[in-house]
Amino acid sequence: MAAGRGRLRTFAARSGECSETVNAGIKSLYLTPPREPKRNVCFESMPSEMLLKILSCLDAVSLLSLGCVNKRFYELANDNGIWLKLYSSSLHPKWKMKSKQTETVSLGCAAVHDKKPGYWKKEYILKQMCAFKSRVMRLVKFLDPYTGLPCKNKEAVKVSGLSWIIVLKDKNGKEHVVEKPKLSFKDTSVTILWYGTDWPYLDVLSTLKLFGVTPLLPDQSRPPNKNGPRRFSLIAEYYLGNLTESSVGVGADELVQLFSLCPGLLVGIWKEKNEIAFVMANLHYNQLLERSILGSATVQYTPPPNKPLLDDIDSEYRLHDYSLHLDLHGRSCMYLCGSFKCLFCRKRDIENGYLRLRVVNLKDNRKHFPITGTLGICWETDVFKGKVKDCFVMDLTLLDETGKPFWCFSAPVHMELSTRLSGLYDYMGHIYTADYADSEGKVCVEFVWLEETKEYIIVSLVLYVSTKKVNSWYGTNY
Questions:
Q1: Cystine design at 199: which of 88, 113, 237, 276 (Cβ 3.0–4.6 Å)?
Q2: Quick check: 445 and 435 in contact, CB under 8 A?
Q3: How many CA atoms lie within 13 A of 266 on its CB side?
């Protein structure tokens, strides 16, 4: 009992102390004057004049990003005074104003009030884009004397901040963007490889679009910002419906099957899951930068038509003096790099709408040449790597007599085992054929496999150029 009374006394004492504390808090509540709550300063609630003063300190990319916040910021970010200040300071040094003048330019300049909102923003962007294009296109003028193609494509890609992306669209209209490709530059083409683990299901896909992407306002002093404003140039569009049935099978290994879509697209499909493993695009250097930069998001770049030079003296006008540069590679390895001059066709060799240009003759073993390595296309993903044999990527560049690119492509080609054996005395073995065709011509190649030396020998190479292409290019009538 004594212990119990002690606990009660302790509780009572604590209870009293608590009541005194509560009473003191109540007194202070009524006797102390109430404090005014802190007001939260909202950036959006500031006066427009003050916001314009702040926005005038931003660069063009920040202004474009701020204009996407809401309608009010869009209108403020379109202020002609701010953009005229940027326009005059960066593009026309003669127009540069003193600091006091640039601060009040939005109030008293006729060039501001006489123009619609956003006028100087459009002018600034257009001038920046023109300067950017001219800077990049200067690099295109440096041509390789052997291929007739621009030789500074890699430097131009770096300067322009150019990258390539693919956009997969499903049947419900949802888009899936794939970026960060792996690039492989060759003498006449670039191979672009996309891979990952979050590909959409193949059965629901309808189209694939290939875009060249560049910063809208590139800054040479800083790397391109992925989240900044960008410009899209449509390069090609492919239809993926019934891909395994409508496209050309290139080859397969233990893990993947390869399917080719014209022009130059290769899709790798997992065998067991029937899902995309990777996508590979082969882009020829001929007008590559123009196609990747000068097009729009919906319309591809259209090159200017060739102006033919007529010649009534030559009876076989434009049937001779062609030059061919041929590369065979497997993305990460080169198998063949050869140039052939003085190719010609006689009138009697024009058949079925094609000019025949014989590059390597089966009967002339002096022009037969070996292939370095075992032909195949190398692929990789996040986890696996492999090589699909009996196929390769062909880069063909046919130049006219002036050295101008006439017919160019970069595309995967598969090989087929022929039923006949080689009848050549020097090369006894199985014959493989590889053919390619598009709207401008056909290519037919024959290989002989030498079991003893484990190598291929090209014994025949013939080009068939469409007469429609020749007539359109030269203004002839074959």
A1: 276
A2: yes
A3: 32
Residues 6 or more apart whose Cβ sits within 8 Å of residue 433: 415, 416, 418, 444, 445, 446, 447
- What is the rounded average pLDDT for all residues in the chain? 83
Q: 192 forms bridges with which residues in the sheet?
A: 183, 281
State the DSSP string of 262-289: TTTEEEEEETTT--EEEEEEEEESTTHH
Cα distance between residue 288 and residue 155, in whole Å: 13
Mean pLDDT for the stretch of residues 311-334 = 86
CA distance linking residue 424 with residue 441, whole number of Å? 28
Q: Residue 163: its pLDDT value, please? A: 94
**Element of type H or E holding 157:** helix 153-160
Cα separation, 116 vs 411, whole angstroms: 49
Structure tokens at 402: 């002036």
> Is the pLDDT assigned to residue 21 strictly greater than 60?
no
* CA gap 167, 94 in Å, rounded: 44
279-289: per-residue pLDDT in tens? 999 999 999 99
Token digits of residue 291: 């196609």
Please, which residues have CB within 8 angstroms of residue 119's CB and are 6 or more apart in sequence? Answer: 80, 83
Kindly report the number of other CB atoms within 10 A of residue 68's CB atom: 10
- Describe the strand order of the beta sheet including 163-170 as a list of residue ranges: 175-178, 163-170, 205-215, 230-239
Extended beta strands in 330-476, E state? 334-343, 354-360, 369-370, 376-380, 385-389, 391-399, 405-414, 416-421, 430-438, 441-450, 455-466
Task: Please list, in sequence order, all residues whose beta carbon lies within 8 angstroms of the beta carbon of residue 180, skipping any fewer than 6 positions away.
Answer: 194
Which helix (H) or strand (E) covers residue 211, if one does? strand 205-215
